[in-house]
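User: I'm putting together notes for a lab meeting next week and I want to include a structural view of one of the chains we've been expressing. I don't have a solved structure, so I'd like a prediction I can at least talk through. The sequence is below, exactly as it appears in our construct file.
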Amino acid sequence: MRKNNFGEGNITLIILKQAVPLIIAQLAQLLYNIVDRVFIGHIPETGKNSLTGLGICFPLISLIMAFTLLFGLGGTPLFSISKGEGKNDRATDIMRHSFILLLFSSFIITIVSYLTMKPLIYGLGASDTTFFYAKEYLKIYLLGTPFLMIGSGMNFYISAQGRPGTAMITTLSGAAVNVVLDPLLIYYMGLGIKGAAIATVISQIVSFVWVMFFFVVKGSEIKLSFKGFVFSVKTALRIVSVGITNFIMEATNCIIQLVCNKSLAYYGGDDYVTIMTVINSVRSILGLVVSGITSGCQPVLGFNYGAKKYDRVCKAIKVNTIMGVLYTLVAWALVWIFPSFFIKLFTDDPQILLFGTKYLKIYFMGYIFMSLQFSGQSTFMALAKVKYAITFSILRKIIIVVPLTLILPLLMKDSIAGVFWAEPISNLIGGSASFITMYITVYRRLKNKEHLAA
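Assistant: Thanks for the context. Below is the predicted structure for the 454-residue chain, given as structure tokens.
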């Protein structure tokens, strides 16, 4: 059985070996929704309304992912620390609890969403025009919720075992199915937005099957077996206490998307909701690299922290930060130079293209500070420093972004621009605060421990 030892070797190479497959895997994961948006946006005649309807569903999709992160990614730092301490029995127990929590929460979310679908969709910001398209997508998409949550949530445990390549296969397999089925169902069979939803659900099932095969049949160092398993509320609460940070980060995305959709619909109408849908898609594409870097760094941080190798923890933090800053600088430059290219990926509508390029540039101003947010947050989460991680998640998105989204349109001549300026301002303030606090409370203290040990 091949094992990865995060406690030895060059830190930069180890992080890259973790990050590159994760970036590819996250790109594949992104294709579940991004490919849908590309094909949906180019449907003749109904493309723009269909894309807007899909954008209306984003807050709920973010909420589903928030619970996936809560119970899936919430357990992996504890899992990595336990493995670093040589306590594999504890690591196994944590993984089994994550699976149970993912399973039950997925069924609850699905049932509640179906029972409240009409008021839910209107509450998410749908107009009478876009309600039909949102409902057509959501009523099928929700069927895949258990497969999505378990497949994605348990995939984090594959990466945490030093098997990022295997984790990459999980999402690549599903994404490949989605890419093939989307044009077939949307255009050839004429199913439109329903075809996109069907393709997504099938692809999620494929990924789920692969993950379960890895854990149950072969491949996993730690098998997913429930023999002698007893559910512990204490263990579940430990997972939740760590995962709450990821939950808040994603759940606040849900809140922000909801506030933005409603504000844009109020000040400009459905076209501007479509523009935000496109911009969110561009952000998802460009953000996956820095997200992959920080995700690849987390098990390395957790393992070395558990092994009390503080010099390697500090080196990993430094590498994580430098890579993130360099990448976000390049990403911002690409958006500034080629804004229309990114908009045209999703729609050729001249109205969307005209105003979308302007607001895309505004939205990505100060994008480099997002890397500081990622660096600080990923370090706090990897070392299970929950209070700090929660604080800065709430600070940037709830305390800064939401009020700015509501206030800036009232203060600016271009009310629509005010909605988009909230993002770069929050990146500057929230990202700087998160990184500086991490540097003082974690990096500098571990450096002192390193010197004392020497």
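A couple of points you could mention at the meeting. The chain has one domain: 15-453. The chain is about 85% helix and 0% strand.

User: Perfect, that's what I needed.
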